[in-house]
Amino acid sequence: MRRACAWLALTALAGGCVTTGAPPPAAQSLRAPQLNLRLSPASLGKTFALHQHLRVEAHGEMHELEALLEVDERELRLALLVLGRPMARLTWDGSELREQRALGFPQPVSGERILSDLMFVHWPPEVIAAALPEGWELRVQDGVRELSWQAQLVESLHAEGPSVLVLDNWLDDYHMRIDSVALQD
After folding, report:
1. What pLDDT shows up at residue 48?
2. Are strands 85-92 and 76-82 parallel, antiparallel or unpaired?
3. Average of pLDDT values for 104-123?
4. DSSP letter string over the chain?
5. For residue 46, is pLDDT > 60?
6. Cα-flanking dihedrals φ and ψ of residue 42, to 5°?
7. How far apart are CA 19 and CA 90, in angstroms?
8. What angle (nearest 5°) sits at the alpha carbon of residue 103, between those of residues 50 and 107?
9. What is the pLDDT averaged over residues 166-176?
10. What is the C-alpha to C-alpha distance for residues 110 and 174, in angstroms, rounded to an integer?
11. Is the dihedral of CA 44, 153, 17, 84 positive or negative?
12. Across the beta sheet with 136-141, what order do the strands follow?
């Protein structure tokens, strides 16, 4: 496999995302704590390498970026690029998160947030559900994942096609469209 490194720089970096309108009423008054999923690469249960085009709407601004993501049983590697220029690199081995940032990479976009969203998008629902702290719940129905805290919707994920996912984070007010292409050996 290619040593790609990269993927999902959401929270305030990419652009042009499809939004689903105003947040659900329950999400408008959220006071949920930040959830930081920390699942081992091996718990994914497979290896893959993806090239992803990300379009993110965050706080009324649109951004676009490319991501290369590679996961094997030992490590997750992520590289984020804007206009072909590397902006951030993350590695996660199940115990240590390492992060490198280029000048100009938005400070509000944390490696911890990116890692947690990657896991919400890619890890099996049963692995996520088993790792959730008290008060959190994961529901999966008709291919839609919904993550709630004390019965209030925080984050949802649904497919818009065979290779397109849409992640809506109502707590942090961002929406991301993820177009993925598998990388070959």
Report:
1. 95
2. antiparallel
3. 84
4. ---------TTTT---PPP-SSPPGGGGG--PPPP-----GGGG-S-EEEEEEEEEEETTEEEEEEEEEEE-SS-EEEEEEETTEEEEEEEE-SS-EEEEE-TT--TTS-HHHHHHHHHHHHS-HHHHHHHPPTTEEEEEETTEEEEEETTEEEEEEEEEETTEEEEEETTTTEEEEEEEEEPP-
5. yes
6. -65, -30
7. 27
8. 80
9. 91
10. 14
11. negative
12. 97-101, 85-92, 76-82, 61-71, 48-58, 174-182, 164-169, 152-161, 144-149, 136-141
pLDDT tens by residue, 117-142: 999 999 999 999 999 999 999 999 99
Identify which has the larger pLDDT, 1 or 131: 131
With the CA atoms of 57, 39, 41 and 154 taken in that order, what torsion angle do they form, in degrees rounded to the nearest 10?
-20
Which tens digits make up the pLDDT trace of 73-82? Answer: 999 999 999 8
Residues 160, 71: Cα–Cα separation, whole Å: 23
Domains of the chain, CATH where assigned? 25-182 (2.50.20)
